[in-house]
Amino acid sequence: MKTASFILCLLLLLSPLLRAQNQPAASGRISGTLVQGQTNTPIGFANVVLLSASDSSLVTGATSDVEGRFVLERVPLGRFILRASLVGYPTRFVPDIAVTAANTAVALGSIAMKASATRLSEVEVTTERALVEYNLDKKVVNVSQDIAAQSGSVAEVMQNIPSVTVDIDGNVSMRGSSNVTILVDGKRSALSNLTMDQIPANLIESIEIITNPSSKYNPEGTSGIINLVLKKEKKPGFYGSASVTAGTYDNYNTSLNLNYRYYKWSLNGGYDFRQRTRPGFSNSFTTNSYFDEAGLVDSTSYRQQEGDRNSTDISHNFRFGADYYLTPRHTISASALYRFGKDEGTNNIYYRFLDANSLVTGTSLRNTDEVEDEQAMDLTLGYRQTFERKGQELTADLVFNTNVDDEESNFSETGFEDLTEVQQTLVDDSNTEFVAKADYVHPLSEDSRFETGFRSTYERLDEDSRFFNLNNATGALEYDLNQSNHFVYDEMVHAVYANYSNKFKTISYQFGLRAEQTFTTSDQRTQDIVTDNNYFSLFPTLFITNDFDANNKVQFSYSRRINRPRSRFLNPFVDRSDRFNVDYGNPNLKPEFVNSLELGYIRYWGNISLNSTVFYRHTTDEIERFRTPIIIVSNGDSIPGTETTFLNLSSNASYGVELGINYPVTNWWRLNGSVSGFRTQLSTTQGDTELSNSQLSWNAKANSNMTVWKDMDIQLSAFYRAPSADIQGRMEQMFSTDLGVKKDVLKGNGTISLRVSDIFNTRQFNFLSYGPGFRTESENRRQSRIIYLGFTYRLNSDNNPQNRRQQNNQQEGPDEEMEY
Fold first, then answer.
1. Domain boundary at 127, 157, 186, which?
2. How far is CA 713 from CA 448, 674, 710, 745, 753, in A?
3. What is the CATH classification number for the domain harbouring 86?
4. Which of 138, 298, 717, 770 could form a disulfide with 292 if both were Cys (CB 3.0 to 4.6 A apart)?
5. Is 344 within a domain?
6. What are the tens digits of pLDDT across the range 711-745?
């Protein structure tokens, strides 16, 4: 039945294509006449530009003739905004222009423009971009519209994004899978290696969520790509902004952003300081079962843990970028990012051990102090060439990024008979990556094009972990050869791809293929164990889109993707910060592959949009955490515990549906929300044990943005996440609500913001884990109800009407005529 339904949907998509094989492609035409105010006299030689309604990008343009008439030819199907401008007149906008297959010729008639000499009450029509924009191939979150971006991290902004969840450590999941690729401006970066709660949101212009990327993209990350688009001012002149924010529990951040563009140069730079303090606590209760020879439970014991922790993360970010336009068609660019910081934290765990009658048999207290120094650098050199043929383009990039972490951890544990153990761990961790890539786009006709390119990557992960134990007799720390480990992982990936796309009437399609050769070496130097894993992979993609009209679009897509195990999955070093719950990596892990299918539909009713997606993913060799019970010897006593490592499962199937809506209730109140539901089915065989788990999960998110009076906005957001499964348990439900208020001051050059995160203090991360011989219920919380107060000042702000008029005049100058 499922197969028949899928074939029927595919035939519905293809039917217009089969009917339109020999018909010309649709091309629209927009015409009108510019006239002056009440006199109705024509306005000649005005600049007329057509903008996309979704993102305000340039589509085409023309100049009105001496009679004020203009004609925009070769306009694609879609929804647009027309902008008319001329020195001496306020810019005129005409929104809600739709070019459809049924109406390809749109006549706007007379468009009146008022001379600026009669500026009694100048009025400008503007369209504010929605917080979340839905496209068939991706979702775009305009971070500048989110009040959380004034003071929070990218993790806090992502709480509002459909399909995305963020855990207590800032790690991201999409549709229940944590295998997500993070890109910055379409590339791997030093920022990509950070967790999302380490990246200030005010660095980001927008966030793109791509759940089924084409073969042009790196196929790494089985659940898709999250692309962070950094802020970079493109308007002529000098612009800048400075902000400072203070939050309860000693949370502070400051930011300075500067941009300058003149003639052939475009420069940008900035500095960010961030202090993040997060107190928290955790508790868990573990039941240990012991079996007799018949496999029946013979006895039971219990372990109760209570922990408190606190950490202070201080970081400094410096960045600089430059674009130089050699000619109107040749551009070189360079950017640099440097980050350094220190993270200091404490973690105290109190253990109580109980017998079968819940009587205490012993206690233990473990104290941990950690200090981590981090440095990160990202260097990029780029080249872009355009050609006389519209859409023909060549780009090339060289990227180098590195992260270096030096960590010192000191453990002390007081257990049975008040005996104290002291241990120390020193870890030197470095990650270096070099990427060379090039992409070429060649239009074959108005609607068809061919893309090709290559990408070569070399990455080295080097982690040297040294373990020391205190000799109570001598009082000296002694090197522990058995627990210390030096692990080096090298990975080279060479890839080529090709895409072909075309369009027949309302049907667009694209198919592509990517080929990759991977070479990996895991070198466990302490034990002199070297493991090579080399493999060749093909990644086909297919996209078919039917634009029934400007307001109805449907798309089917298929892609094959890969998740290569990262260093923390591979490194066999044993983390003993919680000695009764140790974890380590598995250097023998294989990559996991996923086949992903999606069917999406988007519908517009004016400014209202509804996006719906049905998806199915099948993963082989999925990488999952796997826990087993062990016996820990502490001061001569045998105590049950668990150890966690990573294994390849046999299979994972996940399918579900997503719905998202943007609804402007009035011109001062905008709503958007999403609901995502999916079922995950996991199965594996470990030795003689067959394991499986299945869970129906869903999450919902809602945002309300209100302009209550001039220059003051209120944002209220909430999300709910239902329980979700892994192979040995589930993550429990979670709910949270945030409130933000911002007010423009100083004639639009300044903004005061107030934000309260997790108003009801409900955000927590609870887990249930079970397996043969154990069951653990755990609760984890960090301080998340925080009040932030911030101020931002903008130099040459677009919010200031005078600056806006100056900008319009600049944009009509000679620089804007150059096709950079």
1. 127
2. 44, 22, 8, 12, 9
3. 2.60.40.10
4. 298
5. yes
6. 788 888 888 888 887 777 888 888 889 888 888 88
